[in-house]
Amino acid sequence: MVKAWYMDDENTDQRLEHHRNPPEFISIEDLYKKTGIEYFKLNVDTFKTDGVLDKIKKERGYSYEDQITVSEECLPNYEEKIKAFYKEHLHTDEEIRFAVEGSGYFDIRDDSDQWIRILVTPGDMIIIPSGSYHRFTVDTNNYLKAYRYFVGEPVWLPYNRPADDMDCRKEYVDKLKKGFSVAA
Questions:
Q1: Is residue 182 assigned to a domain?
Q2: How far lies 22's CA from each of 68, 130, 150, in Å?
Q3: Is 134 annotated as a binding residue?
Q4: Which residues make up the binding site for Ni(2+) (predicted)?
C-alpha cells in the first residue's frame, strides 16, 4: 500500500524520505481530497492477465503504454534526467505510473502549496492530475521500473513552474478550490 506524508523543508539529498518532525502521514483518501491523485493497488504477478489493469485502461481511454527504468545503468544521461524529473512542473495530460520493480517518490503540492511525498513500490499505480505541480525522484535504492500510460500518443512536455496561466493549471486550481469528490 502506498505511503504519503508531508515533507520537511530540508534541501538535503532529494532521495531521502524528508519526513517532518514529528512525521505527518496522510491517508490515501485525504491525498485524493487535497491533490486529486488517484491510487490503485495492482498485483505485479498477475496484472497482465487478471483484467484489473485492462479495466482501468478501458475506462480511462489509455491506448498507449511504455516502460521506463530509472537507474544509472539503464537511463542515458542519468544525473541530468534525475535533476530534470525533480524540477517542479506540470503536464497538460494526467501522468500515470505503475511501479513494477524498485521504488521512488512522487511529490505533489497540496491546496496550501505544501509538498506531499508519495512513496511508490511494486504494485502501486498513481494518476497525477493534469495541471498539478509535481516532481519525481528515485529513493536511495536508485532504481524504479514503471509502466507509463497515455490517452493517444504520449505528450512528454513538462512545463516548469510558474505555469499558472495555462488552461490545465487553471482547471486544476478550480478543482482544488471546489474539492475533489470520492474517486470512482
A1: no
A2: 34, 31, 38
A3: yes
A4: 89, 91, 95, 134
CATH number of 56's domain: 2.60.120.10
Supply the pTM of this predicted model.
0.95
Residue 38 annotated in ligand binding: no
Query: What SS3 state is found at 2?
Result: coil
Range of the domain at 86: 3-8+19-166
Query: What is the rounded average pLDDT for all residues in the chain?
Result: 95
List the one residue out of 108, 152, 103 whose CA is nearest residue 127: 108
Task: Confirm whether residue 91 is marked as ligand binding.
Answer: yes
**How many domains does the structure of the chain reveal?**
1
d(CA 104, CA 115): 15
Cell 504519503 belongs to 4
* Cα–Cα distance list, 174 to 88, 95, 155, 161, 182 (Å): 20, 19, 23, 18, 16
